Inverse folding.
């Protein structure tokens, strides 16, 4: 049997972001979930350089991307690294 990873266990029950009308509720839910997953530092750029892991940063961006409607993808398209403008 394969080991279960953090990503396989954790799927938030947060409605996908559709636009500005539901942003506050979505951002609050995502903030709570990302903090619980120990990924919040990758969103607000507080992970110390010596602890920063590219794989976790990429997974965090994927987590966020999968929780938005496809119409919002255009706003995430060029986000590629830790030192990015705040999404929240």
């Amino acid at each position: 049997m394969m080991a279960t990873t953090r990503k396989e266990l954790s799927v938030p029950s947060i409605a996908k972001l559709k636009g500005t009308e539901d942003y506050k509720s979505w951002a609050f839910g995502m903030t709570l979930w990302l903090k619980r997953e120990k990924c919040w530092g990758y969103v607000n750029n507080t992970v110390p350089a010596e602890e920063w892991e590219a794989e976790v940063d990429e997974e965090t961006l994927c987590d966020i991307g999968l929780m938005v409607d496809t119409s919002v993808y255009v706003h995430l398209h060029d986000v590629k690294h830790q030192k990015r403008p705040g999404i929240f």
User: Anything to note?
Assistant: The radius of gyration is 13 Å. The mean pLDDT is 81. Residues 16-76 form one domain. The longest helix spans residues 23-36.
